[in-house]
Design brief:
There is one protein chain. This protein has 468 residues and is an alpha/beta fold. It has 16 helices and 18 strands. Strand 2 and strand 3 form a beta hairpin. About 4% of the residues have low confidence.
Length: 468
């Protein structure tokens, strides 16, 4: 893949011969910011084709055969995408970005032991504004490198996370966590409510940041507080992110306390709606699935986390058949996954469903690619802006090199991306028309500084654990 400036005549780039004179370029073409030429375009909502697209003022303004694009547009920056796939950026619809700094702190444990024995204590000792800022920068570097352009986060100090995310140029739905015990940023429930109000007032209407409220889960937030969250989200006009039906322990706790399932509890509380995003959704029965469809509540499938924590296998086929909106997420990179690579997540999603159902056709590469792009956009309520390559949508675009020996030869571009590529094959990442990575080089982050900051925090965490 080659990048050029306007100083190089476009016809020379297309011919592949810098000495070829070529015809003169017309001066009456419209100006664009970026042209991506001669790639395999994967719109997601329609069939792939070889062609080009034009980006101007953050928007995809043209898409189609190369000849039509270069006849109509010239640009300050041109990407030769021959031998590469051009597709919408991935939507990581559920993660905990600052937890990159806890990567590997406690692996190979069930969820409840992992949370109560390691994560909650480590957070209590270490999570502050500096921690979440450094962790967000580290996560952003990883996501930009592997083609994620939008992520949904649930953590603490979300306004600080928003500031760092905005600086990197990524798009995000950021949920301030609310929980029924003292949190690193808010010692009481009332303090958390006040924080949420300030957070939403600061960020609502931002072009890249969507503020959200994130009650942790039905087993860590009381019914009364869940109803308060529902009313607050309706009042402020923001989405809700929540863990839902992730483990058998959660289901057992809710059954013992409330004699119902987590999903039915939320429905009975008047909590479910089309602005609610449920992460995991593993332990759902038929009635739960009907309720999710009835209330248009989306689910985010996190297969690698579910495998890592032995939480179970989501009923992906049944959810899709029922018409439940389904996205894909990595979960947090700290013992429940350990990376934020959405290409790896897609491959895991497909393979897990095949072996679970003992049906190799259970889910296809095309379906999981749609889940990782348009599906996530729908779940997060952003599908009118992102998730597919269409004229008029925001230009969140990635370019994946397909010329690696581990990917060639390519018969199906969707198969090549999902089953053969990995995050390191992403060559360029563009969000809202802004180049965040070019030729695998980060443009909005100082990678060396990011790594140094992460090491400083790591040493601090180790010292805190040794002191216990």
């Amino acid at each position: 893949m080659k990048f050029t400036s306007i100083a190089m005549p476009l016809i020379l780039l297309l011919s592949g011969c810098a000495s070829a004179p070529g015809p003169a370029v017309s001066d009456d073409r419209a100006r664009a910011d970026i042209l991506i030429l001669d790639g395999t375009i994967v719109p997601v909502t329609s069939e792939p084709f070889v062609g080009s697209l034009a980006i101007d003022d953050g928007v995809i303004v043209a898409l189609g055969p190369t000849s039509g694009i270069v006849d109509r547009y010239s640009a300050d920056e041109t990407i030769d995408a021959s031998g590469a796939a051009v597709l919408p950026g991935f939507v990581n619809a559920h993660t905990h970005a600052p937890m990159t700094l806890f990567r590997g702190i406690a692996d190979d444990l069930p969820l409840m032991e992992w949370l109560t024995g390691f994560i909650f204590p480590a957070e209590a000792e270490n999570v502050d504004r500096d921690f979440v800022r450094a962790g967000t920068r580290l996560a952003a570097a990883e996501m930009i490198r592997s083609g994620t352009t939008t992520f949904a986060d649930m953590y603490y100090y979300e306004s600080d996370i928003a500031e760092e995310t905005r600086r990197t140029g990524l798009r995000a739905v950021l949920g301030e966590t609310m929980i029924d015990f003292p949190a690193p940023d808010n010692p009481t429930w009332d303090a958390a409510v006040a924080y949420v109000r300030r957070f939403v007032a600061r960020w609502k209407g931002d072009e890249l940041i969507t503020p959200a409220i994130a009650p942790h889960a039905p087993f860590t937030v009381s019914p009364e507080h869940l109803q308060e969250v529902r009313a607050l989200a309706t009042e402020l006009g923001v989405p809700i992110l929540i863990h839902l039906a992730e483990t058998t322990d959660e289901v057992s706790q809710i059954e013992t306390r409330h004699q119902t399932s987590p999903t039915r509890l939320l429905a009975n509380l008047g909590f479910l709606a089309d602005d609610v995003v449920g992460a995991h959704g593993i332990h759902l029965d038929d009635e739960d699935i009907r309720l999710l469809r009835r209330y248009e509540t989306g689910i985010v499938h996190c297969p690698e986390s579910n495998m890592m924590l032995a939480s179970g296998v989501a009923r992906v086929g049944d959810l899709l058949a029922a018409g439940v909106e389904l996205g894909l997420g990595t979960d947090g990179p700290a013992g429940s996954n350990n990376n934020l690579d959405m290409i790896e997540e897609m491959a895991s999603a497909a393979r897990l469903q095949k072996i679970h159902s003992m049906d190799s056709s259970a889910i296809s590469s095309r379906v999981v690619l749609e889940m990782a792009t348009m599906g996530g956009a729908r779940v997060l309520g952003l599908d009118d802006l992102i998730g597919s390559l269409e004229v008029g949508k925001r230009a969140d675009v990635i370019v994946i090199d397909l010329e690696d020996p581990g990917i060639q030869p390519v018969y199906s571009v969707e198969s090549a991306i999902v089953y053969a590529a990995n995050g390191a094959d992403v060559e360029a990442t563009i969000v809202d028309g802004k180049m965040l990575m070019r030729n695998r080089r980060l443009l909005t982050l100082d990678e060396d500084e990011v790594m140094r900051d992460a090491q400083v925090i790591r040493d601090r965490v180790v010292a805190s654990l040794a002191a216990e």
